[in-house]
User: Which sequence fits this backbone?
């Protein structure tokens, strides 16, 4: 995350992530560092379970879950992010699908034990419709795991962004200024319940490994949600 006052170029979301793909896995990204430290604790046992990774990007979660024994279907709309995923060791264990997340998901109803959507929903315009699709593909007793940059970071002028390796310009894929209440109310309107919600700040441990996060110590950086379907056991 660059300096708060750096002028940015805003690209359509797909175009932005296509450009970001070149450095996405190697960039100093404190949000990813914090998220990966926490979200797998919410997943529980993965061996033998069916998992949808909606908005899989370069496959950072999909391949890890497949290596843990899950049967993973991973979906994204960025061709260049998917191309990065295809080249990674273990990628052949994953079923990758290219698909626009603004449209109904190309999988059957009630298919997955776990549905994950990581660092994506701040780019989704129709949250209620999107959460409805996540709920549709989840089994009645399954879980839906959401991670997203904490809306409080927008008070610092921070959204998902990177320095384009080709142009050298700070670039931001188009995103939406959702608040926590937007996520909560959209999930409820989509027939889901909140099983767990937690907020995670930048701490000294994160600052020690990610110099770009130092200026945000003490600020909430990550929001995690675990959702269930209404009536789920």
Assistant:
């Amino acid at each position: 995350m660059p300096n708060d006052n750096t002028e940015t170029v805003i690209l359509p979301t797909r175009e932005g992530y296509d450009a970001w793909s070149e450095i996405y896995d190697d960039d100093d990204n404190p949000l990813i560092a914090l998220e990966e430290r926490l979200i797998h604790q919410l997943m529980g046992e993965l061996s033998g379970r069916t998992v949808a990774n909606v908005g899989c990007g370069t496959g950072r979660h999909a391949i890890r879950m497949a290596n843990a024994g899950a049967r993973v279907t991973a979906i994204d709309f960025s061709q260049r992010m998917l191309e990065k995923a295809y080249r990674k060791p273990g990628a052949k264990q994953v079923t990758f699908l290219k698909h626009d997340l603004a449209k109904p998901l190309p999988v059957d109803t009630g298919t997955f034990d776990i549905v994950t959507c990581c660092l994506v929903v701040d780019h989704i315009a129709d949250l209620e419709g999107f959460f409805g699709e996540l709920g549709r593909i989840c089994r009645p007793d399954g879980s839906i795991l959401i991670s997203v940059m904490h809306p409080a970071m927008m008070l610092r002028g921070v959204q998902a962004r990177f320095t384009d390796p080709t142009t050298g310009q700070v670039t931001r894929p188009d995103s939406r200024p959702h608040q926590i209440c937007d996520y909560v109310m959209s999930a409820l309107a989509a027939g889901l319940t909140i099983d767990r919600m937690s907020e995670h700040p930048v701490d000294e441990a994160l600052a020690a490994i990610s110099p770009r996060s130092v200026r945000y110590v003490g600020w909430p950086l990550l929001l995690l949600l675990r959702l269930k379907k209404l009536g789920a056991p």
Notes: The longest strand covers residues 138-149. The longest helix spans residues 30-43. DSSP finds seven helices and ten strands in the chain.
